[in-house]
Amino acid sequence: MADAVTRCRACDAPFGPVLCDLGTMAVANSYLPPNADRANEPRFPLRTVVCSTCRMVQLDHVVDASAIFSDYAYFSSASASWLGHARAFCDTMTARLGLDPGSLVIEVASNDGYLLKNFVATGIPCLGIEPAANVAEVARAADVPTEVAFLTPETAGQLTARHGRADLVVANNVLAHVPDINGFVAGLALLLAPEGVLSVEVPHLLNLVDQVQFDTIYHEHYAYWSLLAVERLFARHGLQVFDVETLPTHGGSLRILASATVRPASPALLALRAEEAARGLDSDDFYRGFNARVRKVLQGFQAWLAAKTDMGRKVAAYGAAAKGNTFLNAARVRPKDLLAVADLSAAKQGRLLPGSHIPVIAPHELLAMGPDEILILPWNIAPEIVGQLRSAGFAGGLWTAVPEMRRL
């Protein structure tokens, strides 16, 4: 079920312009068993709008989060590059904050323990908070203490009563996944010790717009973040941003550091505030014209696919990621158009992609089918996937489609 939203979920102001309207789609991470009733697959409007006041970009139809995240098919440890990113973060924050066996680190949306296991290995106490019970069980099996819960002010109070408040709270790539954004950020504030630091990573809205990353829009992503919108949201809950770092992950992200105590703004923070102001993120004009650019990307891919099909080339795809599902559904791709989609995740293999109903298989099975061209759907980790496929002996064409068709 999806509820229509008519006012901003962060500040209750009326909506401004529509950023992107992708029509009606299946939920991007709701993979189907092969015998599923495909005709009655749930589909919901997928449209992003801009708050006229706080400038939070958000969906105007909200799909029930418990139905999406209570049993989830995404496991962070499936990506070697993401594991390296997490390990480097843990090393950096341990040194910067002086974390030791007397500290406590809490990660919200801790997934399969991919990040916290680095703190476990160095003897720093930690706790994961993960709403998906199936994913949390994987983390526990790896000796990462994990509680199954959605973060709210109530659950934050219960958890801190049992475990204490944290010197470092981590919330990586989860701010987009929360329909009750005020309750969630209030919970983050409650988890922090008085001098504690909150570290949040979010894909940067500037990159989404500049690189036409419309495929990062899906029902699990309720909001899309600029520094401007994050600072306004955090300030309402007593959290002050004091530093920011730009990252290459997920097509260009921000690592935002905040605390309840006032700290001097870093030069990087001042510079990014100025950049967003210069680009006009606080005005309607910045957000207009995006839909037309999306159509151009889709038309370019459809022309490429039609040309390859006419040539008799066998086309497949790699990476059963949510962004790929948005892309395939926006492009109206169907099973007849692709041999299959390969993915390393055993949780996705043997299932069908939502909406397009293309089968997901293991990489070695895809290569055995002899594709001539492979479209890499998770373009953010394309170099990693290219390395895997070339090492496995694939000599055909490797492509990405966003922001345009490009042979790798």
TrEMBL record:
Family matches, as InterPro entries: Methyltransf_Zn-bd_dom_put, Methyltransf_Zn-bd_dom_put_sf, MeTrfase_14, SAM-dependent_MTases_sf
BP terms from Gene Ontology: methylation
Organism encoding this protein: Gemmobacter nanjingensis
Lineage of producing organism: Bacteria, Pseudomonadati, Pseudomonadota, Alphaproteobacteria, Rhodobacterales
Keywords: Methyltransferase, Transferase
Methyltransferase in keyword set: yes
Residue span(s) of domain C-methyltransferase: 248-400
Entry protein name: SAM-dependent methyltransferase
Single GO MF descriptor: methyltransferase activity
UniProt domain Methyltransferase putative zinc binding: residue ranges: 8-69
Gene3D superfamilies named in the record: 6.10.250.3100, Methyltransferase, zinc-binding domain, NAD(P)-binding Rossmann-like Domain, Vaccinia Virus protein VP39
Coiled-coil annotated residue ranges, if any: none
